[in-house]
Specification:
The chain is an alpha/beta fold and 455 residues long. 31% of the residues lie in helices and 24% in strands. The protein has 3 domains: 201 residues, FAD/NAD(P)-binding domain (3-Layer(bba) Sandwich); 110 residues, FAD/NAD(P)-binding domain (3-Layer(bba) Sandwich); 113 residues, FAD/NAD-linked reductase, C-terminal dimerisation domain (Enolase-like, domain 1), CATH 3.30.390.30. The strands form 5 sheets. Strands 1, 2, 3, 4, 5, 6 and 16 form a 7-stranded mixed beta sheet that branches. The chain has a 6-stranded antiparallel beta sheet with strand order 17-18-21-20-19-22, sandwiched between helices. A 4-stranded parallel beta sheet has the order 10-9-8-14.
């Protein structure tokens, strides 16, 4: 390799994709430096997937306490909940993970520079008053919350803010109906807050299968979450000790706190991309082609900053694929088909493959299998909550195109189903598989009757 550079690879951003790519490259002998202005671990570990799921675990205890009476435990009031205690425990775990990530980088031989990095040119980085050079640059700076462009929106919290708020609000107003919005709405409701959601459209979770998103809506409403549709916010202002949101049609919504969860955008601003000639789209996403290569030879980008498939495991696989290709003589492409996805509400969603609408849009004639039932766990406790399971099958080939589940076991079950879909499993093979009884998962292999078919 050339000896006129400080490093073989410089990575900007120590989140999931950046860390994975850097460590894999270093394992093959590359001299690697990774630059991070914040904590190591990125969105997922520090302010996303991990802390969010820890909070959801906490929020689910209310159900357990209430349901226990049906199983013979002495009935009584739900124990008092203390938000600061949970927050402190959550923060301690994030601190632990941050240290683990730093140790992993060090043990892999990756140089960590905790400074904000910017591109000077295609091979030069400026950070902390110094410049660094590398043959190859990897940009993995992730994404950040997108504020709603209305007056007063700075009064609202982002998901980052909610994860650090010192006290749980009595009334929470959530703007947005995507997975971040409904997850935090579900979490706060589980801890006892009054929660109201406002969305522009008619249903939550755009892009998910219609049957599943509508079924989740029903369950959230059953739990006391109000969902207001057709709301176009025009302004947010203080109202006494709380906040007031005004809609274009004159409707007014109030909360002690407001969470704005109207999406995320690529975290590409301030990287001086133009200095190196790196092309971005109108949302600021770095344009990439085959192998995550940007418009500039030698500069690559992975993860949410490219706005392809914004999921942690995808960023990890993109980073590792790049390292395999560049440093192990093993050209590797990421398979973006059949990526399993979860929404950690209560109840949760697990999904893999095509939605019904996507299948039809792609020209498939689909057979649809669907079932709904009350989980066995709730037959003694009396809780009114239902599971929904749905299979989409290509009528021409019998291949299973999509598996969708609403139910708290869904995310764990769907991970295994993703393997089956990637292997091209057919409905006949699902049918030939003996179910594990009693379980919700067995429903995926016992569906026999088509509930709807394409015309």
């Amino acid at each position: 390799m050339s000896t006129d550079t400080d490093f073989d690879l410089i990575t900007i951003g120590a989140g999931s994709g950046g860390v994975a790519g850097s460590r894999r490259a270093a394992s093959y002998g590359a001299r690697v430096a990774i630059f991070e202005e914040s904590r190591v671990g990125g969105t997922c570990v520090i302010r996303g997937c991990v802390p969010k799921k820890l909070l959801m675990y906490g929020a689910q205890f209310r159900d357990a306490f209430e349901d226990s009476a049906g199983y013979g435990w002495a009935a009584g009031a739900v124990p008092a909940f203390d938000w600061p205690t949970l927050l402190a425990r959550k923060d301690a775990e994030i601190d632990r993970l941050n240290k683990i990530y730093i140790t992993m980088l060090a043990n892999s031989g990756v140089t960590l520079v905790q400074e904000r990095a910017r591109l000077v040119d295609a091979h030069t980085i400026a950070a902390g008053g110094r410049t660094y050079r590398a043959k190859t640059v990897l940009i993995a700076t992730g994404g950040r919350p997108s504020p709603l462009p209305i007056p007063g929106i700075d009064l609202a919290m982002t998901s980052d803010d909610l994860l650090a708020m010192p006290a749980l609000p009595k009334r929470l107003l959530v703007i947005g109906g995507g997975y971040i919005a409904v997850e935090f709405a579900s979490i706060c409701r589980g801890f006892g807050a009054e929660v109201e959601i406002v969305i522009r459209g008619q249903h939550i979770l755009n892009g998910f299968d219609d049957d599943i998103r509508i079924a989740l809506e029903a369950e959230l409403k059953r739990r006391g979450i109000l969902i207001n549709t057709g709301v176009q916010p025009v302004g947010l202002e203080r109202a006494g000790a709380g906040l007031r949101l005004t809609a274009r049609d004159g409707r007014v919504f109030e909360g002690d706190k407001v969470l704005c969860a109207t999406g995320r955008h690529p975290n590409s601003a301030g990287l001086w991309l133009e200095a190196a000639g790196v092309a971005v789209d109108k949302q600021g996403a770095i344009r990439v082609g085959k192998g995550s290569l940007t418009s500039v030879p030698g500069i690559y980008a992975v993860g949410d900053v490219t706005n392809r498939v914004n999921l942690t495991p995808v960023a990890i696989n993109e980073g590792r694929a790049l390292a395999e290709t560049l440093y192990n003589n093993n050209p590797t492409e990421v398979n973006y088909a059949n990526i399993p996805t979860a929404v950690f509400t209560n109840p949760a969603i697990g999904t893999v493959g095509l939605t019904e609408q996507q299948a039809r849009d792609q020209g498939f004639v689909v057979d649809i299998y669907r079932t709904g039932f009350r989980p066995m766990k709730y037959t003694l406790s009396g809780r009114e909550e239902r599971v929904m399971i749905k299979l989409l099958v290509d009528r021409a080939t019998d291949r299973v195109l999509g598996c969708h589940m609403l139910g708290n076991d869904g995310p764990e079950i769907v991970q295994g189903l993703a393997i089956a879909l990637n292997c091209g499993a057919t409905k006949r093979q699902f049918d030939a598989t003996i179910g594990l009884h009693p379980s919700a998962a067995e429903e995926f292999v016992t569906l026999r009757d088509k509930v709807a078919v394409s015309p």
